[in-house]
Write a structure and sequence with these properties.
Layout (H helix, E strand, L loop, with lengths): L18 H12 L2 H14 L4 H24 L5 H10 L2 H30 L8 H18 L5 H27 L18 H12 L19 H30 L2 H7 L3 H9 L5 H32 L18 H17 L2 H29 L13 H12 L8 H25 L6 H4 L3
Helix pairs in contact: 1-7, 1-9, 2-8, 2-10, 3-8, 3-9, 3-14, 3-15, 4-5, 4-14, 5-6, 5-12, 5-13, 5-14, 5-16, 6-12, 6-13, 7-9, 7-11, 7-12, 10-11, 12-13, 14-15, 14-16
């Protein structure tokens, strides 16, 4: 087993990311498909108190972020959750399943973006069957991925500004409308209990809204390209999450005040269009649609790049069948892994609705976050390091285990469809592991290599 904390013999990555670029990376990774696509779905679960699940989702993510910060400070490497899991438990299959879970969350997240692309933003210009547009969208991402896209963090700054401009537009329109006397503040306390209790309605909505707060964990994979990561990560990650959460909660409050929850729920992924229509009648919705297209395309592309590279890395380490590691001679890209992940995504967009896709993404990552919170406690006791690093408050990992673990169970009110979908995806991964076991036999997992292409 290669020790992931040692030098691999390859040249080190260039440390080009300072605190400002890292801050933009965190904000840009969180902003995107979640708030653009799932506001209506969350409103359908919770009712007028739309801001509550977004605030609670932020609190859960914020607590888990402390664990990530302690671990990235101790092990400033690029492998993220896979590295932390293997350091803590040393179980190859568990490390593999955590890595495959992250990959699966990327595919379901991209499928969510594809649904939003076809059913919401492109529809402002032309109406086509959603499944066909979403499938073409995934195929287009695959072609871009095949050509060898490598987005730099500086390009991410530009895309983040575009995404942020759309959300600031919603905030500006909403504040102007509310200042002019529009809106109904009493809706902010309405909870749609339906056939359940207020507690279950809140936890179910929080489980779905959590999709909007994921992305911050991706930043730890940039640790080897950051200047002094142990020093700059805490401020950049926590500030970036705070900015994103503030934007989300403000949008949730304004949306609920201006548009009844039933109307938001009926609009589904078009909920923010309804806010614009009510807050600024006559505003050219096509402009917002273009911004939305940028947001979902960027999110989906990043996720599909990550998913295909993880499969390639696992195959390259002989953990998955060798065919998934094949590289095109001309383009130098992992074309079989790209095709495989794209086919899964197309099947998902054709068979599953957007709420289930977003919820499944959150479910998969909540499971990973639970493992990470456990890992920080194990490594705190068993593997102290000499260099200075961020240390999470003693209570946060325990609270993170309870909250993330609870939200990842049916007790939170999460629909069983999401567990079925997540289970199918993980069975695919386990099946590939078994197939590979009989092809090449038992192998050691090198988490550091799983995230590199």
């Amino acid at each position: 087993m290669t020790d992931v904390s040692t030098v691999t013999g390859q040249p080190p990555l260039k440390r080009a990311i300072g605190p400002k670029l890292l801050l933009f990376f965190v904000i840009g990774d969180i902003l995107g498909t979640g708030i653009y696509a799932l506001t209506g779905s969350v409103a359908g679960v919770i009712g007028g108190a739309l801001w509550v699940p977004f605030l609670l989702a932020f609190i859960v993510a914020f607590i888990t972020a402390f664990s990530y910060l302690e671990l990235v400070g101790k092990y400033p490497r690029a492998a993220g959750a896979a590295l932390y899991t293997h350091k803590a438990f040393g179980i190859n299959f568990l490390t593999f399943m955590v890595t495959f879970t992250v990959m699966a969350s990327g595919v379901t997240s991209a499928a969510t973006a594809a649904k939003a692309f076809g059913d919401t933003y492109l529809r402002q210009f032309i109406e086509l069957p959603t499944w066909a547009v979403a499938a073409a969208f995934i195929a287009g991402l695959a072609l871009i991925n095949f050509r060898g896209v490598g987005e730099s963090v500086k390009a991410n700054v530009v895309l983040t500004i575009i995404e942020l401009s759309g959300l600031l537009l919603i905030i500006g329109v909403g504040l102007y409308a509310v200042a002019g006397g529009a809106g109904e503040p009493s809706r902010l306390l309405e909870i749609n209990t339906g056939e359940t209790t207020a507690f279950v309605a809140i936890t179910a909505a929080t489980s779905l809204a959590f999709f909007a707060m994921v992305g911050f964990e991706d930043s730890v994979n940039m640790a080897e390209e950051c200047r002094n990561p142990a020093k700059i990560f805490p401020r950049a990650m926590l500030l970036g999450m705070g900015v994103a959460a503030a934007i989300y909660v403000i949008i949730a409050v304004l949306s609920s005040m201006l548009v009844p929850a039933d109307d938001l729920a009926a609009a589904k992924s078009s909920a923010l269009f309804r806010v614009l229509e009510v807050g600024a009648p006559g505003f050219p919705l096509g402009l917002f649609a273009v911004i939305g297209l940028f947001a979902v395309v960027n999110s989906a592309l990043i996720n599909m790049l990550m998913a295909s590279r993880l499969l390639y890395g696992m195959s390259n380490e002989r953990i998955l069948p060798p065919v998934l590691g094949r590289v095109h001679e001309g383009r130098r890209t992992p074309w079989v892994a790209i095709v495989f992940t794209s086919v899964i995504a197309i099947i998902l967009v054709a068979a599953v609705d957007i709420t289930a896709l977003g919820g499944t993404t959150a479910l998969l990552l909540l499971a990973v976050f639970t493992v990470v919170n456990i890992a920080v406690l194990v490594l705190r006791r068993r593997d102290p390091v000499e260099h200075p690093h961020f240390r999470a408050p003693s209570w946060t990992p325990y609270v993170g285990i309870v909250l993330c673990g609870f939200l990842a169970t049916p007790l939170s009110g999460r629909p069983l469809q999401q567990f079925a979908l997540a289970g199918i995806l993980l069975l695919v991964g386990a099946g590939l592991w078994v197939i590979n076991y009989f092809i090449v036999g038992k192998v050691d997992v090198d988490p550091e290599q799983l995230t590199k292409s």
